[in-house]
């Protein structure tokens, strides 16, 4: 049963799973739409409180006869009510005898099983009619939205995009928890001596979650998230460069203790970031988690950049020796590229601006989320 504080909704009748009837209740009229193509022989019988429709057209059973009966909630003016057959549907306009907001379309409180609700057309009676306004029933009336969904489907129907993002964030959280757990077990068992085995133990897991993180760039491109595409690409791409070019490509670097510290910093940041995203998707506010999400980066981001810088510096002599990724003349392209020189330029010119950009953006976001007044209270 619809609530009285709604003035417009769109309902769909499924007749043999394909014949659809839509209604949009407004103050003076009810508009209905029947999704049926190639319509012929439309027969409409209107009483003050009853609508009977039969038609021949293309529906769930192919070209066939279809029909429905509706016992209306209140009286209509049959002389002024009309219908129109267009290309892919039949549109009805039923004028109300007594203008006002109907609590429901049918006279019976129980909604017929074939009558389905389309939640994209909700507006509220207390709002002015403005076609440019975009209403969000889930945000505006969450209790009623949940109730209607449970009546309609037997469960709370979620947006597929939202479900996908929850699964993605959960998988990434589990991946980084696994990395931290393995590292913690190794360190508790062997102490600092385990650091040289870090990459051998969790390197594959780190490569996997890091590759999956490139989806976050796609999320921002396609509008799944509101994050900056540039910021996402710089962060994910920078990590991938360190992991695959600096560590995976040079076996001697894989046994250095700095790998342990780098993985520790990366994973610690992420085990707070992904749960925060999950709670936001579920509209759950955990103030301490929000504070951690926008505060833990302050010591960890500089440590992460420091570890990455150390890895690049330590790798320069190795790549000088092996000449890996270096292109020397002469060659068919008449092009030369000295990878160790590139690493020096990357370290001096690229790393510092990227670090400044990412940290400045995080600091701005932190002030937006926490606010100066909230920060003072927390540190008071």
From TrEMBL:
CDD domains: p23_hB-ind1_like. The lineage of its organism: Eukaryota, Metazoa, Ecdysozoa, Arthropoda, Hexapoda. PANTHER family: VERY-LONG-CHAIN (3R)-3-HYDROXYACYL-COA DEHYDRATASE. It holds the Pfam family CS. It comes from the Eukaryota. Belongs to the very long-chain fatty acids dehydratase HACD family. It is a multi-pass membrane protein. The keyword Membrane applies. It comes from Xylocopa violacea. Its EC number is 4.2.1.134. Keywords: Coiled coil, Endoplasmic reticulum, Fatty acid biosynthesis, Fatty acid metabolism, Lipid biosynthesis, Lipid metabolism, Lyase, Membrane, Transmembrane, Transmembrane helix. It is found in: Endoplasmic reticulum membrane. It catalyses: a very-long-chain (3R)-3-hydroxyacyl-CoA = a very-long-chain (2E)-enoyl-CoA + H2O. This is Very-long-chain (3R)-3-hydroxyacyl-CoA dehydratase. The keyword Cell membrane does not apply. Pathway: Lipid metabolism; fatty acid biosynthesis. Catalyzes the third of the four reactions of the long-chain fatty acids elongation cycle. This endoplasmic reticulum-bound enzymatic process, allows the addition of two carbons to the chain of long- and very long-chain fatty acids/VLCFAs per cycle. This enzyme catalyzes the dehydration of the 3-hydroxyacyl-CoA intermediate into trans-2,3-enoyl-CoA, within each cycle of fatty acid elongation. Thereby, it participates to the production of VLCFAs of different chain lengths that are involved in multiple biological processes as precursors of membrane lipids and lipid mediators.
């Amino acid at each position: 049963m619809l609530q009285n504080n709604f003035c417009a909704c769109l309902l769909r009748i499924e007749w043999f799973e394909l014949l659809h009837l839509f209604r949009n209740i407004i103050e003076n009229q009810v508009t209905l739409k029947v999704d049926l193509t190639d319509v012929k022989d439309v027969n409409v019988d209107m009483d003050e409180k009853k609508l009977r429709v039969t038609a021949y057209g293309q529906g769930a059973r192919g070209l066939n006869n279809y029909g429905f009966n509706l016992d209306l909630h209140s009286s209509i003016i049959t002389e002024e009510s009309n219908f129109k057959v267009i290309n892919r549907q039949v549109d009805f306009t039923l004028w109300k005898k007594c203008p006002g907001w109907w609590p429901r379309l049918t006279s019976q409180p129980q909604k017929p099983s074939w009558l389905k609700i389309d939640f994209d057309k909700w507006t509220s009676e207390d709002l002015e009619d403005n076609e440019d306004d975009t209403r969000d029933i889930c945000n505006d009336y969450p209790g009623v939205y949940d109730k209607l969904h449970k009546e309609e489907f037997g469960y709370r129907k979620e947006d597929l995009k939202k479900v996908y993002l929850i699964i993605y964030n959960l998988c990434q959280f589990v991946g980084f928890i696994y990395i931290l757990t393995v590292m913690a077990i190794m360190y508790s068992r062997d102490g600092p001596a385990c650091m040289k085995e870090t990459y051998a133990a969790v390197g594959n897991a780190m490569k996997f979650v890091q590759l999956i993180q490139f989806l976050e760039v796609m999320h921002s491109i396609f509008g799944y998230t509101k994050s900056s595409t540039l910021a996402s690409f710089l962060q994910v791409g920078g990590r991938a460069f360190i992991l695959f070019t600096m560590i995976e490509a040079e076996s001697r670097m894989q046994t250095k203790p700095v790998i342990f510290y780098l993985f520790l910093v990366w994973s610690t940041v992420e085990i707070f970031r992904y749960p925060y995203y999950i709670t936001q998707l579920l509209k759950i506010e955990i103030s301490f988690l929000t504070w951690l999400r926008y505060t833990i980066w302050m010591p960890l981001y500089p440590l992460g950049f420091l570890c990455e810088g150390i890895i690049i510096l330590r790798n320069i002599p190795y790549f000088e020796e092996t000449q890996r990724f270096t292109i020397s003349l002469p060659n068919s392209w008449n092009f030369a590229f000295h990878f160790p020189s590139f690493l020096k330029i990357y370290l001096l010119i690229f790393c510092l601006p990227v670090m400044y950009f990412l940290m400045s953006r995080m600091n701005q976001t932190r002030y937006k989320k926490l606010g100066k007044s909230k920060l003072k209270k927390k540190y008071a």
